[in-house]
Amino acid sequence: MRNWPDSLQSRHRRQEPLGWASCPGLECLGRCIGSWKGGTILGALKLPLFLGDGGAGACGGGGASGLLLLAAERAAGSSGIKPSSQPLIQAGDDEKNQRTITVNPAHMGKAFKVMNELRSKQLLCDVMIVAEDVEIEAHRVVLAACSPYFCAMFTGDMSESKAKKIEIKDVDGQTLSKLIDYIYTAEIEVTEENVQVLLPAASLLQLMDVRQNCCDFLQSQLHPTNCLGIRAFADVHTCTDLLQQANAYAEQHFPEVMLGEEFLSLSLDQVCSLISSDKLTVSSEEKVFEAVISWINYEKETRLEHMAKLMEHVRLPLLPRDYLVQTVEEEALIKNNNTCKDFLIEAMKYHLLPLDQRLLIKNPRTKPRTPVSLPKVMIVVGGQAPKAIRSVECYDFEEDRWDQIAELPSRRCRAGVVFMAGHVYAVGGFNGSLRVRTVDVYDGVKDQWTSIASMQERRSTLGAAVLNDLLYAVGGFDGSTGLASVEAYSYKTNEWFFVAPMNTRRSSVGVGVVEGKLYAVGGYDGASRQCLSTVEQYNPATNEWTYVADMSTRRSGAGVGVLSGQLYATGGHDGPLVRKSVEVYDPGTNTWKQVADMNMCRRNAGVCAVNGLLYVVGGDDGSCNLASVEYYNPVTDKWTLLPTNMSTGRSYAGVAVIHKSL
């Protein structure tokens, strides 16, 4: 025992009162503050001092509450210990019982770090957890503190509560090791490779934060090619939020989802559930009809009997009459099924009714779908600034903000850019030294570009558009001459093929699609060396090009877009004259009319339509490249400049609109 003053030792052994509060025991001496007649107790005890609260936390003896004040006399010749006449801290009546609580945020982390170090050295471990051939030493109290599964195991009446070695079944050893590491370190890596085993194991051990991290990771990986698989996985493991998110994603990206292997492998009930949803996002009911035919043909012999059940959910009355006659009626699967023929007759009769009578018909097949509207962003691809660049910018309409996204694999300007089947395609163009025939595809979910089959001809300053799930590359310049040729690409086969050529060679041509027809607007004729006012129309049903009404003025490098079923030709140039005028083509009357001029002269600008507005992006004014963007409102016949410019001026950039990745 330390050499305490005799009288102090004897008093503590007898638990006599010290000062105005009881001393709980000898071991608390170093935790009390007091005064000693003739000197400080610090000098006598040579121990650290602490203002204790006299509670059970002060020492093992426990006891009184309030301040513990130790007073003592000199041990030598003293008749006893007397209380101090004054408390160390004087408090006013209104400040009595004040306390200070100190929280050390690093305390828990330090404690767990030490416990993990002890575990790694196999010190104080009292249980071994086994899975497969992996054995893990651990501390029961740590496992129980972090996992309700282990807490129930160690505190209940099960044999495992006393066992030194416990086997965990249905979990592989490496996964269990990662989870026990997490219990000690609060760190874990979730990857594509381990998430499918990590989530169920975390669920078993009731590590709900790890389980949620796995769900968040899977949500971030949603893609048209995997969303149905993730939905099924979430359903099996009762991840309700993830299940809802994956299902909503599949509905919102149905045109791309229906092309994947996961869709073709769905059960009948799963397909019915998906295509019957009012929230299915499709530009036309044609996509739903095509999805049904694809699913049946995937395993035709076993699925043919389900044709009528599936067609019950296809809203045939909402399809165009021409499509009903030319496609649905000619489909062999429809012809050979009486119930399906009845659905077709119902749709035909619907089209024969006056509009007011159609509105009175209420059944699931005449009800328009009401998809959840996804926010959209505008992608501006490559361009000249002043040389060909790789940069790609994304404009968020809701936040009025430009962001840089994944660059093109190589420099590209004067390319054709379109959105098709959930991806952005950059077709042909000029790389700074050569006209190219290569094609790059952008995946907005992965923020990644990949290359696909190249065109058959080199083309820059071409026009590009999508019609009936085919990407058309129209005209352009191959490095020596303007082109009249046109080729089309099928993403289903990854192949390019030629279609009928235009009647006129056209480089710097603008294109657009209206009512199932492809239009080539203006451009430059290399043979006559003139800018063009002529316009041609392509009919895919006949594979023929025919002239329609000329524009009112010659335009090469005009920005062409489609808004509300009409074709807009914006800006462009006629020789050195750069225009800001705009004219609009009405296919119904085969006429052009002038609308309001843009705020700035522009040629070689990108154009897109979003939410009833027509956007014209960048271009050049004849002397410099433009970073500004303006949009046209057909209701007010006015052009307005966006408040925020691109990061750099671009001409010959391609523009597309995609759904914002969630």
UniProtKB/TrEMBL annotation:
Listed under GO cellular component are: cytoskeleton; cytosol
SUPFAM superfamilies, sorted: Kelch motif (SSF117281), POZ domain (SSF54695)
Keywords, alphabetical: Actin-binding, Cytoplasm, Cytoskeleton, Kelch repeat, Repeat, Ubl conjugation pathway
Q: Which SMART domains match?
A: BACK, BTB, Kelch
Note the Pfam families from the entry: BACK (PF07707), BTB (PF00651), Kelch_1 (PF01344)
Superkingdom of this protein's organism: Eukaryota
This protein's major location comes to: cytoplasm
**Residues in BTB domain copies:** 125-192
Q: Give a GO biological-process term.
A: protein K48-linked ubiquitination
Keyword Repressor among record annotations: no
Spell out the subcellular localization from the entry: Cytoplasm, Cytoskeleton; Cytoplasm, Cytosol
Pathway annotation from the record? Protein modification; protein ubiquitination
Among its keywords, does the record have 4Fe-4S? no
Matches recorded under CDD domains: BACK_KLHL3, BTB_POZ_KLHL3
Example GO molecular function = actin binding
How this chain assembles, per its entry, is: Homodimer. Component of the BCR(KLHL3) E3 ubiquitin ligase complex, at least composed of CUL3 and KLHL3 and RBX1. Interacts with CLDN8.
Q: Which family does it belong to?
A: Belongs to the KLHL3 family.
Protein name, as recorded: Kelch-like protein 3
What is the source species?
A: Heterocephalus glaber (Naked mole rat)
